[in-house]
Every structure is written in C-alpha cells, then in structure tokens.
Amino acid sequence: MVADKDIELTTRANEVDEVAAQEAIDDERVKAEKEQAGGALDRYINLVSAINFSFILQCSWEAAAVTFQFSLSNGGPASIVYGSIFSTIGTVLVAVSLAEMASMDPTVGAQYRWSATFAPKWNRFFGLMQGWITVFAWICSCTSNPALVSNVISGLVIFNYPDYVPQRWHITLIMWAITLFPFFANFWFRKVLNPLEAVGAICHVVFFIVSIITLIVLAERSTAEYVFTTLTHDVSGWTNPAASWGIGLLTVVYPLTGFDGVLHMSDEVKKARIRVPRSMITSVVLNGVMQFAYMLTVLFCIGDVDLVSSDPLPIIQVYYQATKSKAATNLFVVMLAIIFTISFFNVFASVSRLAWAFSRDNGLPFSAFFAKVNPRFKMPINALMLIGTCLCLLALINIGSSTAFNAFISLPALALYISYFFPILFLFIRRVSRSHPEPIPWGPFQLGALGPIVNLAAMCYIIFIIIWLPLPTFLPVDGLSMNYAGPIIGAVILGALLDWCISGRKRFQVPIARHRPDLG
C-alpha cells in the first residue's frame, strides 16, 4: 500500500503494512467488544484532532495564569522561573515513558491496563488498584476545569463590582452550571467537538501571543534581580526556603498534567499507535515552552507586587496595571475562561471513556450498566452521567472549605502523578529483568537503550513532586485551610483495597494487551 507521509516520518519503511494490519486487528477487537460489552466507539479522530485534543486539554499557560498566587506566597519568582524549567523537563520524561507504552498498546484503559500487563506479580490486584486511582485522578482533573472557570468568574465580579461579597456556595452553583455544557455536548453535539478543538487551539496560541505583546509594550518592567533571584519564604508561614520553593511548584506542575487525556480516546483515534504518542509528547513540549514564556513575561511585567498578591485573582491586577482599562482586562481574563471551558469538553470526554473502559473490564461496581454504549449516540452515556454526578458531589467541597480551590488544583495533580508512577515502575522492572520468559512487545515508538534511564529519571521526578503536592500552602493549618488532597487520595486507596477484598478480586478481569505484529 502507499503510506501517507504521517506514517513514513515516524516508522520504518517496512512497518507500514504491519501497522495498518494491526489497525484492522484492533477494529476486529472493537467489534468483538461491541457484542460482549453492549457497544463500541467509532474511530473519527484524525492526526490534527488528536494533537489539538491534548494541546488544548492542558492549556498550561492559562492555568498558570490563574494559579500563580500559590507561587507568589511560596517560593515567589524563583519557584515560577526555575520551577517551570524543572517541571517541563520532568513532565517530558514522564510523557515519553508513557508514550512508549501507548505505542505498544494504545488503549482507553491506559495506565491500569499497562500495570496489569507489566506488573511482575499480582497482576489483577495492581490492575484494579491502578484503575481506581486513574479513574479518580481524572474525575478530579475534570473538577479542576469548572473550578478554574468559577474562580475567574468570581474574580471578575469582584473586580467590576467591589461591593460584591462572594459566598462559597456561589462557586459551587457556578461549577454545577458549567458542568452541564460538556455533558450535553459530548453526545448531542459530538460532531462540533473537532471544530471546537481547532478554535480552542487557535485561541490558545493567538491570545498567548497577544497577551505577551500587550504586557511587554504597556506594563512597567520588573528588574532581572527580582525575576531570577527572589525566593519568597516569609509570607505563607513556611520559613524554610527549600520547602517554600517546593510547595510553590504547584503553579507550574499542575498545568502540565493531563497530557494522557488523548490516551483515553484511543479507540476513537485513527492510527492510534503512531498518533497518540506523538500527540502526548508534542502537547507537553509546546505547553511547557508556552507556560515558561508566559510566566516569565508576567514576572517582568507584574507591576505592584503587593497589589497583585492581595487580589483574589492576581492576574486581573497584572493586566489592569498594564492596560489601565477595565474593558481590556475583562477581555483578557474572559478569554482564559473560554479556553478553560473548551478544554473542559476534552477532559470530560476523556474521563467518561476511561470510566467506560474500566467498567468494560468489570473494574467498577455495577460495571454492566456503566459499560454500555448508547447505540444511537455511539457514546457511553451512563459513564457520562456517572462523571457528571461525581463532579457535582466534589463541587460541594467548596462549601465546606475556604481553600477548596487549592484542593481542586493539588488533588488532580497528585492523583495523576501517582497514576503515572506505577506503569513506568513496572515497565522499568520488566526492562531490566533477565528472567521474564516473553520479550516486551515494542511499538513503533521505542526509546531503546535510553529507556531505563528515561524511566528512572521520570520516576525520580514523580516522587519529588508527590512529596510537595499534599502539603498545605499556608501555616498554621486548621480545618478550613487544610489541604485535603492527601487524605482524599488515601481514602480512595483504602476504598480500592476494600473493593478488592469484598468483590473486586472476583469481579475484575485482567485486561489482555492488544498484541501487534513484530516490527523488529
């Protein structure tokens, strides 16, 4: 057959027919699953859409823009500048490690399927535990989008109407309202999602350029000494400089998570073995560079630091001091909310497919119900309803805690990094093991001799980040200022263990990897 340019640039010449053959095998598997599990999904996502999906899902510079108050109080500019470089390099290592597995087995289940495949023993146990952690991580990641949008809306209302006194339940209601849009769009307006992603990607780039130019041209300049040498460690109660720097990493680490979202759409991506790994790596590199450039610009154009720090949404004061115009400030900040909303469509679609896949393997209670695919919409509507319900319940955290926004940001980052760790660990063990009877079924993308080094570096980065994410951003800690990310993750793990003991060990089916032809 005549290979298209996309495949020729990323695979050896003799692999083209075999990759296409594997795609046909995968389609046959999908048909079999349709008969067994109540339905299957259509492949409709092409290369451009796959890259756009991850690119706009992360929206890293926008997320950093509305969360950099964490770093202003902990670490300051030093945490933002050097943390951006550190987090980009670390996340690329993690993305490359997962992309290698995605090339072997591009599956909706992703992390839990790989853990079940590569775990040296107790495969069913690690598969089920990984499934619970990954599904919960993505539900939390889904929650962060409406949290970001509601935070922007609340900040703009305060900015334009200073007499307004925000109530925590107001934010919860806004989050509920925002959740309705992607819920209905994912099955009633699916055909507009690809064009919407393209619009989102264009806005993601255009407003990045416009924002940087506006700030550079209009804002007062900070000194290079402030940007590159200021390490804040006397504002939040954390007095140790290293601890403050580590806690401040939340601003730059959180926006780069979620690059695996396209993995959970794998059954709907054409030529997934090539395009899914490419989408993941491309998204992390581009978003990491954009985040660093944007935050560097913000620091050089921050203006009155005390005024910025005291604002509920500091980025508002950065734009307002630069433009001296409320209308212009509103426009710039509203665009952040629009991009978050478009990203929310992708996150919602991704997590619903993940819950559907986990149910298909009997990972969730009542799996038969959540594994169904609606024959009319070709969508896992029951899984969509499950995710929507979970989001509405998690939004209630905002009523009980004055620092709930912190939990909505640190919780998904912590949970996602835990979900990334175990598949990489198991692949690393399999890689260096000399006793395993079967070779690793490599895909078109392979790290080769660098693989163990990359995997080890990725795991070290993940462990370092996991240490800081559960810590509270302010001291002393009380019931309202507590960072509930750690306890909630602990509760999920305990719940998964309980599920294993009660019925999971009998219910859960170890996923079988989709073997591909030997491309060696």
Individual helix count: 23
- In the CATH scheme, what's the topology name? Amino acid/polyamine transporter I
Helix content: 55-70%
Give me the Rg, rounded: 22 Å
Shape assignment: globular
| Spans of at least 5 consecutive residues with low confidence | 1-17, 514-520
Q: In terms of quaternary structure, what is this?
A: single chain
Q: What is the total domain count?
A: 1
| Average of per-residue pLDDT values | 84
The CATH class: Mainly Alpha
Total strands: 0
Order of helices and strands: HHHHHHHHHHHHHHHHHHHHHHH
Membrane topology: Multi-pass membrane protein
Main location: membrane
Keywords: Membrane, Transmembrane, Transmembrane helix, Transport
InterPro entries: AA/rel_permease1
Protein described:
The chain is mainly alpha-helical and 520 residues long. It has one domain (45-507): Amino acid/polyamine transporter I (Up-down Bundle), CATH 1.20.1740. Helix content is 69%, strand content 0%. The chain has helices at 5-8, 16-37, 47-58, 60-65, 69-73, 76-104, 111-118, 123-160, 168-188, 193-218, 224-229, 241-247, 250-253, 272-300, 305-310, 314-323, 326-360, 367-370, 381-394, 397-400, 404-432, 451-468, 485-507. Helix 17 packs across helix 19. The model is unreliable at 1-17 and 514-520 (pLDDT under 50). It is a multi-pass membrane protein. The chain crosses the membrane at residues 44-68, 80-104, 125-149, 169-189, 201-219, 242-263, 284-305, 331-358, 379-399, 405-429, 449-471, 483-502. Keywords: Membrane, Transmembrane, Transmembrane helix, Transport. This is Amino acid/polyamine transporter I. Its main location: membrane.
